Model the fold of this input.
Amino acid sequence: MSHQPFESWLFTDDTLEPEQSEALNSHLEQCENCRQMSVALDQVFKVISTSENPEPKPGFTQRWYQHLSLYREKRSEQKIWLIVLGLFALATLILLGLFFLNISNFNWGYGLGQFIANFSLIAGKGKQILRTARSLSNAFPILIPIMVVFGIGSFSAITALIITWFSSIIRIYQPAKEGVQLK
Done:
């Protein structure tokens, strides 16, 4: 026995023509499967129409907005890191490209000689600085504690300025929190 178009008529939301409705009723009297399907469908509609709409737990909206805010912050941080890493990768590729373009013009013997000469100059300057420091420490023993105090003070001041600068940069580029107005 064919169940079409009767199954389609059972599941349609459209109003059936009188002939279609009469044909469906006569088919339901004869066909046990379609009758069971019709009864089950009626029970489903009854359960759906009598059930209550589910309500969210208290504070759901607030929790959802907080989660959304955290998600957006995390996405923003990820984007910043991707941009920074992308820029570093681009700079590396440019430098490598320039290196490989100029490698044919590079004289390795001259480069090694320049490296040795620069190393010798730095070593000579270091030796000269040590000699000057020894002569100052022998000639002016009172200057050493003053230089240490000013050196520590200068180092502390520079460190405080660098930390302040970094924290200012972080605060400037930190995303604004929702509900907070900037003055």
About this structure: The chain is about 80% helix and 0% strand.
